[in-house]
Amino acid sequence: MRILAIGNSFSQDATADLQPMAAAGGLDAEVVNLFIPGCPLETHWECAQNDRPAYSLQRDGLDTGRWVSLRDALCERDWDLVTLQQASGLSGLPETYMPYMAELVGFVRALAPRARIFVHETWAYESDSDHGAFPAYHSNQNEMHIRLKEAYAAAAAALSLPLIPSGDVIQALRGTPAFCYARGGPSLCRDGFHLSLTYGRYAAAATWYETLLGGDIRRNPYLPDGDGLPVEEDLLAVVRETVHTLASR
Fold it and tell me: What does the chain look like in DSSP terms, one character per residue?
């Protein structure tokens, strides 16, 4: 299965663990992330129109050192799945999605007609995040999640595209005792907005694993080692059950 993510650091977070997770589940996957830091849909479309080699190509969680255009990447492989997403700060602003997502869908379909396109629903910031875009949501995590969820759903519905519910999974985990940050639980973010290298990235990759590859994360032996610290099995169990509940529908 060949997966191409057209995104930024949030798709980098979501895909970092996906290839080894798939391999541990007995699935063959190639996972490529096209990376421009903080890139919104509008800029992706501008890059597509101008055939700009602005993307750092990351394969299976590693930087290849290559810079490519969107056209180059789409034509390089016979992709099975392609994902699109909005920049995190704009994710709850529905007016920022169109016409750019629709134009990108047309661009992808012209160059990768066999690929199935998914919309990647990203996540809200940590409750005490100092991200410059957080005030647009009154620095309220729940408000940001509700608004981005609605915006992603509307865009996906308008284009008849399925969603990868990473944002729903992260927010649901924050509501569990195991990951209740306000009560001393570990944050799923490492800096207030990017995912933590162990449980956060694992949760996002597991969501992609179930949604895109049809795997059952509860039966997958893969263990994350993003921050080099021992993994707590009870926390992983919470992640697995939450992901399976939300992503296997």
Answer: -EEEEEESHHHHHHHTTHHHHHHHTT---EEEEEE-TT--HHHHHHHHHHT---EEEEETTEEEEEEE-HHHHHHHS--SEEEE---GGGTT-GGGTTTHHHHHHHHHHHH-TTPEEEEE---PPPTT---TTGGGGTT-HHHHHHHHHHHHHHHHHHTT--EE-HHHHHHHHHTSGGG-GGGTPPPSBSSSSSBPTTHHHHHHHHHHHHHHH---GGG------TTSSPP-HHHHHHHHHHHHHHH--
